[in-house]
Amino acid sequence: MTEPKEKTPETTDHEWDGITEFRNPVPRIFKLSYILTILISVLMWVLLPSWPGVRDIWPGVLGYSSRTTVLEGVEEAKALRQQASAQAGARPLGSILFADNCAACHGYDLAGQTGFPNLIDAAWLWSGTREEIIATIRYGINTDHPDTRYSEMPAFGRDGMLPRAELEAISDYVASLSGPAPDHESAAAVAFDENCSACHGARGSGIAGSGVPVLDDAHWIYGGGTDAILETLHAGRQGVMPAWESRLNDRQIEELADYLIGAADAQGS
Ligand code: HEC
Ligand code: HEC
């Protein structure tokens, strides 16, 4: 029986006190990848910001910078946000709020209806500045709010201030004011001057921002026919615009004001 001959592995020929070292080289694939990583790292030093220089770090041939990447990301997010709000702008918050809260009285087209003023004509009762519109929406007109706007057309007939015949003549005169040839010399014109112009301005031309309607234009809250005018003179008018302070927040009220201003501008008024 012969012992199977043990295969002696190759040694490195180094020998220390009878101890030899086997030759066990690193597999070629490891050696190659080691060399490759070194080459890649050299390539990276060249391409990307790496070694400190005298003034600044080596910026790299590609000019890459993580700070620029972050800034670009921020810009991109900003652009997306702008795009989103521009899309929302197609249906501004103001128009949604208006449809929900105001259209029942002022109409979905903002053009008003009998008793409720048109909000896109040139005729602002309370001047069309942003502050004034905000105040009107916030406090209302003829409401119980302590800061309410107040507006009342006296009941000349019912309260016995002027006789019926005179009111009829004045109504005809008022109806003629927006027509081609009002007669400013008539007795009715004189009566108007005495009884009405303090609030409605000379010849009904209005007093800007007082809340009192102009009478010599084509815009009417209650109607420009003689009958409607006579009814106004007889029974008076005191339209109520609700106060929205407790129902809408500041931002919503401002959105509404901007929406009204935008809509009025779009009408060219
Ligand atoms: C219940 C009916 C009603 C509702 C609802 C209503 N309004 Fe009015 N609004 C009126 C009346 C009536 C007037 C006119 C008051 C008067 O006779 O002076 C008015 C007047 C106004 C005016 C003043 C116009 C001018 O020429 O100066 C503005 C502005 C206005 N409304 C905006 C709004 C907005 C915005 C909303 C919704 C948040 C709204 N209104 C909801 C009834 C209403
Ligand atoms: C104390 C101020 C005041 C006096 C005086 C006054 N008015 Fe008025 N008048 C108003 C106000 C305020 C309104 C708006 C009421 C409302 O919107 O509810 C109005 C509304 C009217 C309207 C309705 C306008 C519309 O757009 O439908 C007519 C018409 C009118 N007045 C005519 C007259 C005539 C004519 C006289 C004189 C006989 C007169 N007023 C005197 C304050 C006055």
Task: Detail the topology: elements first, then pairings.
Layout: E1 11-16, E2 19-22, H1 28-47, H2 66-89, H3 93-101, H4 103-106, H5 130-139, H6 164-177, H7 187-195, H8 197-200, H9 226-235, H10 250-266
Antiparallel strand pairs: 1-2
The chain binds heme C (HEC) (2 copies).
Oligomer: single chain
CATH architecture of the largest domain: Orthogonal Bundle
The biggest sheet, with number of strands, parallel, antiparallel or mixed sense and barrel status, is: 2 strands, antiparallel
Q: Could you give the order of strands across the largest sheet?
A: 1-2
Bound molecules: heme C
The CATH class of the largest domain is identified as: Mainly Alpha
Class per helix and strand makeup = mainly alpha
Head-to-tail CA distance between termini:
121 Å
Weakly predicted, low-confidence segments: none
Task: Give structural notes.
- This protein has 269 residues and is mainly alpha-helical.
- It folds into two domains: 1-90, no CATH class; 93-266, Cytochrome c-like domain (Cytochrome Bc1 Complex, Chain D, domain 2, Orthogonal Bundle), CATH 1.10.760.10.
- The chain contains ten helices and two strands; from the N terminus they run ββαααααααααα.
- The chain has helices spanning 28-47, 66-89, 93-101, 103-106, 130-139, 164-177, 187-195, 197-200, 226-235, 250-266; strands spanning 11-16, 19-22.
- Strands 1-2 form a two-stranded antiparallel sheet.
- Helix 3 (93-101) crosses helix 10 (250-266), helix 5 (130-139) crosses helix 10 (250-266) and helix 6 (164-177) crosses helix 9 (226-235).
- Bound molecules: heme C (2 copies).
- One heme C (HEC) is lined by residues 151-154, 156, 170, 174, 192, 195-196, 198-200, 211-213, 215, 220-222, 229, 232-233, 237-239.
